[in-house]
Hints:
Layout: H1 6-25, H2 58-68, H3 71-81, H4 83-90, H5 92-126, H6 132-141, H7 151-169, H8 173-181, H9 188-207, E1 215-218, E2 221-224, H10 228-244, H11 256-259, H12 261-284, H13 290-319, H14 325-332, H15 334-351, H16 359-398, H17 411-415
Antiparallel strand pairs: 1-2
Amino acid sequence: MRVANPALENLRxxxxxxxxxxxxxxxxxxxxxASPPPFDLPPxxxxxxxxxxxxxxxxxxxxCAFQFLYLMQMMFFLSGLFVWPSLRRRxxxxxxxxxxxxxxxxxxxxxYLLMPLAFYPVYRVTAVDPSWSSFWSHWTALPITPxxxxxxxxxxxxxxxxxxxxxxxxxxxxxxxxxxxxxAKEHPGRLFxxxxxxxxxxxxxxxALFSPWKWIGWGPFEVQAALAPQYVIYFLxxxxxxxxxxxxxxxxxxGRLVRHWPIWxxxxxxxxxxxxxxxxxxxxxxxxxxxxxxxVGNVGxxxxxxxxxxxxxxxxxxxxxxxxxxIGGISENAYGIYFFHYPVALWLQFMLLGVAIPAIGKGxxxxxxxxxxxxxxxxxxxxxxxxxxxxxxxxATLFGAPWSAGxxxxxxxxxx
Length: 416
């Protein structure tokens, strides 16, 4: 969706870069396994560690851990912001159809076209026969359907459909959602406390059964078991803020959240330390009280996710209220960049295996190249689709059946 708010445009662009950085740097983290896992044997850990390079840097571990704990919560929050206004504009039926076409169809295309291409180099790392035909026989024999980053699309479709059902049952439900965040301009701490409490109730029991990076699901419909409820919670938070109006209330420029951004950022870093120190002690120090440390770490994880989302949003609404040219271009193509980036990143990492370059250099090169190539692919695809829409609309007009007012697809329809 095209966003009229420069702060949100800039935030979305930066988040996409961070997602790419997470995937590009993950091949060079110290905590990777010592050697690549077998392609054909469970638990198929190559889904989490696709390419494993012998060149590594501990800084990438800290960066990836930092992003892992809040980045998708932030993405779901941003996604939820625009749902209720879109439901008002389109109506629930048209909204669902739009989201199925915009998210569901790319999910299937990504799953069955891009993901085999993405994981082919992963197979080649340990393969006896690296040919495509051999890979395809192994790929189709897998008891799983790896979706990679495409999981975000199907999960978002489910949340969007749920929101549409809510709107259909109660079109005025937005008023109730708005009431939940109406006082957030002057009391963001109360909203934060509510989000943290609900997140804790949802996360703590699941954390006893699943690690944060444990995936469960059926077929291609996989999700992180322990974190999935948090994704729903932050989507609902975005839904409520959007129903109230994302340019007022919590996100008003003169509100307490934006004015006190340093407190939220500092709190986020403190919460991150509350998570990473217990985790480091568990891994590095034998004989420590694991259960107690893990409980402390769980508190830190929940607090950090909330503080990072609130703090990063406040920071951008304080200092990023004017368009940023490059980031704006990335934001405009954010969806396409996300869609195309994974196979590009994995192939670049594969090609650099054994190349005598420090891990920092490899990671930065893969990030820049992945962003550039994915951006080009996104722009090319957008132009191709726009040309197709224009041809269809022109033909429909000639035959007296315009697809939209005036026989043209509007700018909103092309970018929403």
